[in-house]
Amino acid sequence: MQMTMTCAEESRALEETLAGTFKPAETFFLIESNLPEYGGWSGSIVKAAGSAGEFAPYLRHLQRAKRAKILFIRRPQGDSKNFYIAMTNQDEPKIYHAELDDYADLLSLDLASLAEERAPRLNGREMAPIDELYTVCTNGRHDPCCAAYGAPVYQALAEQAGSDRVWQTTHIGGHRMAATLVAYPQGIVYGHVDPHDVESLLMNHRAGYILTHKYRGRGCYAGHDLDEAAHLAAGAAEAIIRESTRQYGIEDLRLTAVTELNDGTRRVSFRGSNGGASTAEVGTSMSVPRQTSCGDEPKPMPQHDVRILAAI
What we know:
Layout: H1 7-13, E1 27-32, H2 45-51, H3 56-62, E2 68-74, E3 82-87, E4 94-99, H4 111-115, E5 121-122, E6 125-126, E7 128-130, E8 133-137, H5 144-161, E9 166-169, E10 181-184, E11 188-190, H6 198-207, E12 215-218, H7 228-245, E13 253-260, E14 266-272, E15 277-286, E16 302-310
Parallel strand pairs: 1-2, 8-9
Antiparallel strand pairs: 1-3, 2-9, 3-4, 4-7, 5-6, 8-10, 10-11, 11-12, 13-14, 14-15, 15-16
Helix pairs in contact: 2-3
């Protein structure tokens, strides 16, 4: 009998390139809830909760923030109402925390404080800054690979980072790259993470470094208003340039420009911490059809061809 691979198994077998696969998100809103009123975490729960029910007005308010990404979070036996905001669109990204008395408190969030890069205000009070947080996608009702790969990574990360710093989350995006996780406050996104990767990932993130072989991209590049295609091209170029120049520090590279050329390729330039400039051209084409989610019909996916022009 012919065996069919899951979407994550296929992605790993094909050695799919991870860099340049995370869409832009400037502000992450993380809301603790098991969502019993919606029947739990369904496959498209954020969309469902935003269209009807108790959470609809709250999520619509949050979605007014520029490029907002809303995730529901939970822990085993958790029953509080923790709320976090990660602001990745700043030169110094930050993440803030508050515990809600009621979910209606979300309507009091001062969105202007986000746009002005001030500490966000909830019910007239500034939210408290924290140093780090991690979310691991375990949303198995969206795709079984998220639970199969995500749950062991969540457990390993909670044990090593501390359970107060790690959350399970709804769909991050790219479940074929499970386990997927986001490291805050920078909004750095990793894929194909296994439990044995956790110690290295955690140690490097805390020391200010990126694991380029697991790197999918980041929430945004501060100071740049990139469309989705340009953002993905920048992520693909960043990983290759980092590996070529051995600049693995999170702050070692600063994006300076993304320019679309006449042939549709994009020229991506970074400034290094050493003052050097690195440039690459990124061409994006469509792959042969592949699984993007278990049970779905295969379809072509964007793939990036990165050519380094200068790496200093």
